[in-house]
Design brief:
Length: 105
């Protein structure tokens, strides 16, 4: 099965309001009951309003940056975003493993 996380949305999943350059956005990645991935992008202050959408795999926050004029720079920015997603997934998995270890002791 191929999963696609996608790039940050241009607007909040909850309010539909467009993100502004310099605004802090929280991205959450859920595994839905049917095995699909759902990415939710919301304003930092909306994070607590995101309801249950399946198992939360990871979350990360980032600033909205101006769109690059250079296509090569745009590709680099997309790769950086993907890297941040995977690092957040790794960090959340590592934290869960440590929490499991704490419970066993």
């Amino acid at each position: 099965m191929d999963w696609s996380v996608g790039k940050v949305s241009s607007a909040s999943t909850l309010s539909g309001e467009t993100f502004e350059v310099g605004e802090r956005v929280c991205s959450l990645l859920f595994l839905s009951p049917d095995g699909g991935l759902e990415r939710v992008d919301v304003r930092e202050e909306e994070r607590g309003q995101v309801g249950e959408r399946g198992r939360l795999l990871c979350r990360w926050s980032h600033l909205i940056k101006p769109k690059p004029d250079d296509p090569a720079e745009e590709r680099r920015a997309a790769l950086q975003s993907a890297e941040e997603s995977f690092l957040a997934l790794y960090e959340d998995t590592e934290e869960e493993a440590e929490e499991g270890t704490d419970e066993a002791t």
